[in-house]
Design goal:
2 strands; mainly alpha; about 0% strand; two-stranded antiparallel ribbon
Length: about 500
Amino acid sequence: MCVESDGCEIEGCSSSDELPTLSGSMSPGLKSSPDLQPCKPGQKFRAALLRCRTPAAAAGILSFGNILNYMDRYTVAGVLFDIQRHYKVTDSGAGLLQTVFICSFMVAAPIFGYLGDRFNRKVILSCGIFFWSIVTLLSSFISKEYYWLFVLSRGLVGIGESSYSSISPTIIGDLFTNNSRTMMLSVFYLAIPLGSGLGYILGSGAKDAAEDWHWALRVSPGLGITVGFLILLFVPEPKRGNADQIGARIRTRTSWVCDMNALAKNRSYVFSSLASAAVSFATGAFGMWIPIYLARAQVVQRTAEPCTKEVCPSPDTFIFGAITCVTGLLGVVIGAAATRLSRQKTERADALVCAVSMLGSAIFICLIFVVAKKSIVGAYVCIFIGETLLFVNWAITADILMFVVIPTRRATAVAFQSFTSHLLGDAGSPYLIGLISDSLQTTYASSALWRFLSLGYALMLCPFIIVLGGMFFLATALFFLDDREKAEKQLNQLARTPSSVKVTSKQGAI
């Protein structure tokens, strides 16, 4: 039994074989042996399988899984208007779908964070994918009399997707390091806007092709189950801290209570988590309501007629999805490039790039509601620029966490950051925006113009939240260097301290 430098009592040991990483380390079981013998049946297949378990292949599979994660999440948003008409619910009732999803997601996140720091991560990931894929498929058969059951199904999907978002970044963090990790996390988090945009495209495309919105929920489950098997076969389970060159020597872990206490004292982690909550608030509200807002804008401009059919065309949903895909790509690429260049001038570059992009995004998002009444094209331009700047910080925020949190605590840190960002962000924003819109519509005379304006006034809350997020990133920049230095010191101590030695120094918690 020993004590870490932050005062955390170590629970015990865990040992697993090393796996190949970008740094070149290799599992002893994979190194050549002088006593070679003929292969037994199945050994050739296993050897070929192990050769395919490269860090790059693992990152690619996990990134594709993240695309499906967010694609499944926003497929419902892509057919939200049809769901509203089918189940005959108000704006607030429709917003409840995303709120229930996110609430279950964030409640499950700390549980999966705890499990991810202690058990086989890829098994947890695969089980989560199988679960959410099956529930999504079954939810497409719920009849119009059981809207509550449809809402419940979205909550169950949130539990399954929580396992993926909480654990998969930590595997990438243990396979890569430094600029390579930044690049791979950028690719991984590129899946958020890309998957979200594809969700809109898939939802509207499948609905139009089948002339039935239920088919929007019947495409992604098959892909999800396929990815689950790919993770089991080709994604390794790296030892925690492997990429930091201490994987073979970390044989201990601290209690969950101690981990949470250390994270609460980590100022960079706390402020970046609050900033992530601001981003989640805006993206959650936008993802649910912007396509409907633009559809109402066209009715006000008399370029489209109110839809009275069972299945309504959704060009705005398709266009918004395509814009989200492109802006996601640009945002992540710009964020990675800007951070790399800025690091040459300041070591606080990560947080500063996030702060500047957030503040710039707020300006263009405000302009959306100014120009949408007169010009849909102008609104799309503002959406394009605003989303690009907003998506700059996705991967950088994850990289900040990797710098200031030690490897044995990262799954818990990712999970609790996810919990916080959803609790204060998109868990309530879709429902809150719908509730404000409904309240404004009932207060004044209802008309096509006022339905458009009421939703726009409700969405105007988002730019103010984004500015607040930019302030939190500036606060992160103030404490980033100190917290990174503390993490490095504790990491070095873990690397050189055997599990049988007691360490009593009381340095700052990370």
